[in-house]
Specification:
Length: 81
């Protein structure tokens, strides 16, 4: 961290001493701050998409996959490369 100023290093060291949940929150907020402003309507569009997908699942229109099966499928696809 030689490129960091002393105040940034001290802040970083302090942050590392926080509980993992607090560190995760800080990390998420910092990353989000790099994205800039969200376009108008994007949040509402995502909310509508989530609701649509929940409805599809509740109505049996889509088939959910087990995470372990998905990981195994990906591992097999990687091996075939």
């Amino acid at each position: 961290m030689s490129d960091m100023s002393i105040s940034v290093e001290a802040l970083f060291d302090s942050a590392l001493r926080l509980p993992s949940g607090d560190r995760a929150r800080i990390a998420a907020e910092l990353i989000a701050s790099l994205d800039g402003a969200t376009e108008a309507g994007v949040e509402a569009a995502w909310d509508a998409e989530v609701e649509r997908r929940i409805a599809q699942t509740d109505q049996g229109e889509v088939q959910l996959l087990d995470w372990d099966d998905v990981k195994a499928d990906v591992a097999q696809a990687v091996k075939r490369r």
